Amino acid sequence: MTGSDLALLVLEDGTHAEGRAWGARGQTLGEIVFSTGMTGYQETITDPSYHRQIVVMTAPHVGNTGVNTDDPESRQIWVAGYVVRDPARTPSSWRSTATLDDELERQGVVGISEVDTRRLTRHLRSAGSMRAGIFSGDALPARPGQAGIEELAERVRSAPRMAGSDLAREVTTPETYVVEPIGDFSEPVGTVVAVDLGIKTMTPVRLAERGLRVVVVPTGGTYADIAAHRPDGVFFSNGPGDPEAAEAEVALLREVLDARVPYFGICFGNQILGRALGLGTYKLTFGHRGINQPVQDVRTGKVEITSQNHGFAVDAPLGEEFTTPHDGGRYGRAIVSHVGLNDQVVEGLECLDVPAFSVQYHPEAAAGPHDAAYLFDRFLDLITRSRTAGTNAKENA
What we know:
By secondary structure, this protein is an alpha/beta fold. It is built from 10 helices and 20 strands. It is about 25% helix and about 30% strand. Helix 8 links the parallel strand 13 and strand 14. About 50% of the residues are buried. Keywords: Amino-acid biosynthesis, Arginine biosynthesis, ATP-binding, Glutamine amidotransferase, Ligase, Nucleotide-binding, Pyrimidine biosynthesis.
């Protein structure tokens, strides 16, 4: 390997690996995590929830189908860095417009290949996610050997930690936009305001496929901004960062709950609902990232295979109704509606006295299985029942 091809991966605990530079050359720092998805790498790297994270792919061969213009889940690649074992030399797909290597370089994403990703993943499973860096080209250390590794490890340790980071504002849409109903609908069956905390492209599409008009708004607005669209429902999306730092979003959601507007949240939106209800959140050791995560819906008993990408989780009691802690039970009772079967982590919340529910995983399935698509139907049912109840209340007044 020539000097121009050399790349180094260094973790904050001093663990390091030598590999081949891939994508852009230079330095990148972030939290290193691993994804177990065997497919869907283009959706993974364009998921805004991966902002400031270096992603290790456990699938050994990545890039086989190149990149195309159909699969991105946002306007750019968001991963801070990319670690693979064996990148494809030549893509093979009629949809391919470029190689993954070229696209990473075009968007300035520093990567490394020819790394023993199995060994690296085993280390992250035991030691937990941590800060790391990829270095190549001019970012390689001046001193060789262990002295150079120590120099790079110090750069890694200077990077901000994920815990305590408020990142949604760094990935949200700069402007409001509308996704109209998709399909044979003469008019929208309702309007949903979706607060973009890092929303994936497919999420408003799944809502629009059910006849809903989706108004996607940047985070940072007020409840008056949301109410101005006269929503039948409000949605909070997935997104990066620590939910404990998202105080403005928690306060905003409490106003939505106070107004009794039906609410549905995904991923970060699940954690925001948990904190709005007065529950705690905590950081998982290595998180859930992949498209093969089993979850049980406790209401039906059905097990679904889900797409997940989260490093934080809600702390709530399993298997029993509980009074939500905020403000002496202001939002009444709730249950944990979905549970992860690998480790019993809370994967969903359902409020019993206000019209709100959420899941930790990704029913929009991009990439991933479609087992959980029924949740969008459940949101539409909630909107319909709330609207009917409001109409009946007015007639009986």
